[in-house]
C-alpha cells in the first residue's frame, strides 16, 4: 500500500466547490494564510463585518473558522470583545523552534527507516524546485518569496513524508507554519546560508544518514530563529 502524505494547511488547495462546507474550508485556508504571511498582523482586531465582506462568508461561518484558528494559537477569542490575531513574542519563537526540532527530528528517524525509491523521488523533485527558486532569490528576485515559502515546506515535508504518521505530519505542519509566521514578519530571506543548509540536507537524506540530518535540521532551525531575533523590532519583550 502506498504511503500517504499529508498536506499542510498553509499550502493545501481548498476542496472542490461542492457547496457550503467547501466555501467555509476555502475561507479557513485563506484566513489562516493571511495570518501566517503577516497580511493580518499580530494583535490586529478581526472585525466580523469587515472580515465577512473581505472573505465573502457568513458571520456564523466566520465565527466557526476563527474558533478553529484559536486551537492553533493563531487567533485569540476575547469573549464579548471579539477576536484578534495572536501576538508574537521572543518566548514563543524559541518554543516553536524547540518544538519544530523535536517533531522534525523524530519524523526523520521514522522516515529514513521506511523511505523507499518513491520517497527518494519526492525529495529529488522537491529540492530541484526549491533550488531553482532560491537561485532566483539570490539573484535579487524578491517577488519569488511566497513561492519559496511553499517550496521550503514541500522540501522539508518530502524528507519526512515516509514517517507514515498523519498525526505527526499534521503537528509538524502546524508548528512549521507558526514558526514561518515569524520569518514572514521579519521580512528577510537568509540567503546563501539557508541554501547551503538545504543542499546538505538533500545530500544527507539520500544517504539516509539520520544522525547527520537531525544535526543539520537543529542547526538550520536555530540559525533561523537567531536571524529573526536580529531583526526583532516586531517582537515584544515577552
From TrEMBL:
Record keyword Transcription present: yes
Coiled coil regions, renumbered to chain: none
Signal peptide limits: none
Species, as recorded: Neorhizobium huautlense
Pfam families in the record: FCD, GntR
Domain of life: Bacteria
Keyword terms, alphabetized: DNA-binding, Transcription, Transcription regulation
Domain HTH gntR-type as annotated: residue spans: 21-88
Single Gene Ontology MF annotation: DNA binding
Region called Disordered, residue ranges: 1-23
Keyword Transcription regulation belongs to the record: yes
Name used for this protein in its record: DNA-binding GntR family transcriptional regulator
Amino acid at each position: 500500500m502506498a504511503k500517504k502524505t499529508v498536506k499542510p494547511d498553509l499550502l493545501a488547495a481548498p476542496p472542490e466547490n461542492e457547496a457550503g462546507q467547501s466555501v467555509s474550508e476555502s475561507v479557513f485556508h485563506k484566513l489562516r494564510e493571511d495570518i501566517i504571511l503577516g497580511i493580518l498582523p499580530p494583535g490586529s482586531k478581526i472585525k466580523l463585518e469587515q472580515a465577512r465582506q473581505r472573505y465573502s462568508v457568513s458571520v456564523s461561518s466566520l465565527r466557526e473558522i476563527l474558533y478553529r484558528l484559536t486551537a492553533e494559537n493563531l487567533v485569540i477569542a476575547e469573549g464579548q470583545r471579539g477576536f484578534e490575531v495572536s501576538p508574537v513574542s521572543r518566548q514563543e519563537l524559541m518554543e516553536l523552534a524547540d518544538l519544530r526540532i523535536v517533531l522534525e527530528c523524530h519524523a526523520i528517524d521514522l522516515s529514513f527507516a521506511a523511505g523507499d525509491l518513491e520517497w527518494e523521488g519526492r525529495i529529488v523533485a522537491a529540492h530541484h524546485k526549491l533550488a531553482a527558486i532560491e537561485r532566483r532569490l539570490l539573484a535579487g528576485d524578491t517577488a519569488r518569496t511566497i513561492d519559496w515559502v511553499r517550496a521550503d515546506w514541500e522540501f522539508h515535508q518530502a524528507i519526512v513524508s515516509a514517517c507514515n504518521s498523519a498525526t505527526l505530519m499534521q503537528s509538524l505542519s502546524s508548528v512549521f507554519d507558526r514558526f514561518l509566521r515569524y520569518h514572514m514578519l521579519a521580512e528577510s530571506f537568509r540567503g546563501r546560508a539557508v541554501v547551503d543548509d538545504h543542499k546538505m540536507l538533500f545530500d544527507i537524506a539520500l544517504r539516509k544518514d539520520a544522525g547527520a540530518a537531525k544535526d543539520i535540521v537543529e542547526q538550520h532551525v536555530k540559525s533561523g530563529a537567531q536571524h529573526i531575533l536580529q531583526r526583532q523590532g516586531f517582537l515584544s519583550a515577552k
